[in-house]
């Protein structure tokens, strides 16, 4: 699995996941529990992961929708 997106913005993360799902790309959200443990004050980012084979296509989907790194 490769990291596609790292963000503290839950709305951005949910939108990215919805776009990927719409394109048939499976994704996995990492560091969810760490983010919750820190009290949701926005210090620890969550990571959105995709398989190695889907990485290039997933990047294009995010780029086309102007979702980039923070």
Cα(first) to Cα(last) distance is: 21 Å
Helix/strand/pairing category: alpha+beta
Low-confidence stretches: none
| Helix-residue proportion | 40-55%
Morphology call? globular
Q: Going across the biggest sheet, name each strand in turn.
A: 1-3-2
Please provide a written account of the structure:
The protein starts with a strand and ends in a 6-residue tail after the last helix. With 70 residues, it is α+β, with helices and mostly antiparallel strands. The protein has a single domain, classed as Alpha-Beta Plaits. 41% of the residues lie in helices and 21% in strands.
Any chance you could write out the topology, listing elements then pairs?
Blueprint: E1 2-7, H1 10-22, E2 27-30, H2 32-37, E3 46-50, H3 55-64
Antiparallel strand pairs: 1-3, 2-3
Question: Notable features of this structure?
Answer:
70 residues, DUF2007 domain-containing protein, 3-stranded antiparallel sheet, 21% strand, 41% helix, alpha+beta, 3 helices, N-reg_PII-like_a/b, single chain, Alpha-Beta Plaits, DUF2007
Give a short synopsis of this structure:
The protein has 70 residues and is of the alpha+beta class.
């Amino acid at each position: 699995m490769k990291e596609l997106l790292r963000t503290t913005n839950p709305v951005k993360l949910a939108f990215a996941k919805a776009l990927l799902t719409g394109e048939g790309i499976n994704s996995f959200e990492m560091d969810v529990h760490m983010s919750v443990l820190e009290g949701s004050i926005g210090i620890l980012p969550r990571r959105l992961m995709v398989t190695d084979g889907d990485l290039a296509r997933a990047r294009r989907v995010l780029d086309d929708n102007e979702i980039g790194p923070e």
